[in-house]
Please model this.
Amino acid sequence: MSSANHYKLNKLVRDKSVQRMENEGALVMWRELEQPQRIPHLLKKLHEEQLEVQSAFSMGDKKNMTNELSDLMDVITALADAADIKMEEVMASSEDKKRTRGGFGRGIYVDKIICPEGSTFDVYCARDPEKYPLTN
Model:
């Protein structure tokens, strides 16, 4: 390499990314993380992909939305694998929640809730007062 730029990536990448970088002449310093080390990096990647999904949706480009949603799914699958959880279990849990609590398809949005003190929802909201502040 006669002239080259050095970049610090410090990020989890797809399995074939190093090969692609090297095919373009890059010198890549990389390592394969052991299973327990992967989880914090996958969580960071989950956040990164979530931001990319938001960006794709704000642009309204269906192809980009599809690509970013697939990246998000791949990270979720890798997280489940790293935690030794089968995707079948995740999907079964999802189906059970849809059956008992419903999904998100109708777009129901709650602005405020007034619930009896000590009720399930009171306890749930009181656990996280920054997320669910008390109002009048």
